[in-house]
């Protein structure tokens, strides 16, 4: 079963992975042909020190070197009904130097290394797409640099669309929870569940369903 292609009008803003993935997830879940066939997950990648090494990223200074992110976000699709061994899960990463989408197991093996020092080892917060859309909120202050009391500049130009507030975040009066409920790898708080590399490899292996 072929995975859905990126929409022709897909929105992408460099360094704003959480919003890029939010909008892609929103588009996929709004399409019944996708939402009735695939389980959609948004995956936050970080660790306690917010310093994780990812290989095969477009921002690498040179081929073969990792990029160290404070956090990163990708979208994972798993077929809801896997009847044959050839079925694949798929990962969408706008910043990867790989095809989009990329088979899940291949993406994981090319992006993360088991022999990496603990300081740069990744943890993963896996959240269902529906929960992410409903609960995510960001006022973008995590990317701001305050220069004067009335002026704000961003480390990287923000998306042109308005800051995102999910319907449940609005109900809770939550203006921003990016860092406190999504990027954090503290398992007792936030949405979804926190896993390690081995569990992510299992999640990406559809034959384990």
TrEMBL record:
<dbReference type="GO" id="GO:0070773">
    <property type="term" value="F:protein-N-terminal glutamine amidohydrolase activity"/>
</dbReference>
<feature type="domain" description="Protein N-terminal glutamine amidohydrolase alpha beta roll">
    <location>
        <begin position="12"/>
        <end position="202"/>
    </location>
</feature>
<dbReference type="GO" id="GO:0008418">
    <property type="term" value="F:protein-N-terminal asparagine amidohydrolase activity"/>
</dbReference>
<comment type="function">
    <text>Mediates the side-chain deamidation of N-terminal glutamine residues to glutamate, an important step in N-end rule pathway of protein degradation. Conversion of the resulting N-terminal glutamine to glutamate renders the protein susceptible to arginylation, polyubiquitination and degradation as specified by the N-end rule. Does not act on substrates with internal or C-terminal glutamine and does not act on non-glutamine residues in any position.</text>
</comment>
<dbReference type="Pfam" id="PF09764">
    <property type="entry name" value="Nt_Gln_amidase"/>
</dbReference>
<dbReference type="GO" id="GO:0005634">
    <property type="term" value="C:nucleus"/>
</dbReference>
<protein>
    <recommendedName>
        <fullName>Protein N-terminal glutamine amidohydrolase</fullName>
        <ecNumber>3.5.1.122</ecNumber>
    </recommendedName>
</protein>
<keyword id="KW-0378">Hydrolase</keyword>
<dbReference type="InterPro" id="IPR023128">
    <property type="entry name" value="Prot_N_Gln_amidohydro_ab_roll"/>
</dbReference>
<comment type="similarity">
    <text>Belongs to the NTAQ1 family.</text>
</comment>
<comment type="subunit">
    <text>Monomer.</text>
</comment>
<dbReference type="GO" id="GO:0005829">
    <property type="term" value="C:cytosol"/>
</dbReference>
<dbReference type="InterPro" id="IPR039733">
    <property type="entry name" value="NTAQ1"/>
</dbReference>
<dbReference type="InterPro" id="IPR037132">
    <property type="entry name" value="N_Gln_amidohydro_ab_roll_sf"/>
</dbReference>
């Amino acid at each position: 079963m072929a995975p859905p292609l990126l929409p022709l009008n897909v929105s992408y803003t460099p360094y704003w992975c959480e919003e890029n993935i939010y909008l892609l997830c929103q588009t996929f879940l709004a399409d019944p042909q996708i939402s009735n066939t695939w389980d959609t997950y948004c995956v936050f990648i970080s660790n306690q020190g917010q310093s994780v090494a990812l290989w095969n990223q477009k921002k690498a200074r040179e081929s073969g070197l990792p990029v160290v992110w404070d956090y990163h976000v990708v979208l994972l699709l798993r077929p809801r009904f896997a009847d044959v061994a050839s079925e694949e899960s798929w990962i969408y990463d706008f910043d990867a130097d790989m095809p989009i989408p990329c088979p899940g197991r291949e993406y994981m093996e090319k992006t993360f290394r088991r022999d990496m020092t603990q300081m740069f080892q990744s943890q993963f917060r896996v959240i269902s797409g529906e929960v992410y859309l409903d609960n995510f909120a960001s006022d973008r202050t995590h990317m701001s640099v305050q220069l004067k009391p009335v002026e704000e500049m961003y480390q990287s130009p923000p998306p042109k669309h308005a800051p995102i507030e999910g319907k449940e975040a609005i109900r809770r009066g939550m203006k921003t929870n990016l860092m406190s409920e999504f990027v954090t790898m503290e398992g007792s708080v936030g949405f979804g569940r926190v896993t390690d590399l081995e569990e992510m490899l299992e999640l990406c292996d559809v034959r384990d369903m």
